């Protein structure tokens, strides 16, 4: 388990307070009707802190702590599918109940807001680029590097498409995410 510095722990508490406030307000009022001032007030921070932490109101929802944990757990290996599957499993196996509740809330807001869905592409591409960078061997050919970029993008997009409901368990969600990783590598229409 990672040990956080005092500053990193404070930053994490701030990030969580903002996300929890935004989720609660947006589930109640809708994304468009929820102001950043209301989010900041409920989180107990200034609007300036909110924008320093996330940049935009949409970024509050598109910061994907789960995808960040997948990236941190990912270790380069000769088999990129096995490596990404292992990282997904590690991220799922270590998710806390508080992190799971945040994931459920975050996704609940996103699926209700078509405009919010459209803004997430950049965040997802960033995560996919990080995954591709880790998985790409130093002496990879341009074709191999391109294939790994496609694999990472397909996997991340697929992970975002896996539905979560209030009764979904992390284990069931994780099994679907692992299935998505394999489909990203072998094609969505291939027989499993």
UniProtKB/TrEMBL annotation:
<keyword id="KW-0804">Transcription</keyword>
<keyword id="KW-0238">DNA-binding</keyword>
<feature type="domain" description="HTH tetR-type">
    <location>
        <begin position="12"/>
        <end position="72"/>
    </location>
</feature>
<dbReference type="InterPro" id="IPR050109">
    <property type="entry name" value="HTH-type_TetR-like_transc_reg"/>
</dbReference>
<dbReference type="InterPro" id="IPR009057">
    <property type="entry name" value="Homeodomain-like_sf"/>
</dbReference>
<dbReference type="Pfam" id="PF00440">
    <property type="entry name" value="TetR_N"/>
</dbReference>
<feature type="DNA-binding region" description="H-T-H motif">
    <location>
        <begin position="35"/>
        <end position="54"/>
    </location>
</feature>
<dbReference type="GO" id="GO:0003700">
    <property type="term" value="F:DNA-binding transcription factor activity"/>
</dbReference>
<dbReference type="InterPro" id="IPR001647">
    <property type="entry name" value="HTH_TetR"/>
</dbReference>
<dbReference type="GO" id="GO:0000976">
    <property type="term" value="F:transcription cis-regulatory region binding"/>
</dbReference>
<protein>
    <submittedName>
        <fullName>Transcriptional regulator, TetR family</fullName>
    </submittedName>
</protein>
<keyword id="KW-0805">Transcription regulation</keyword>
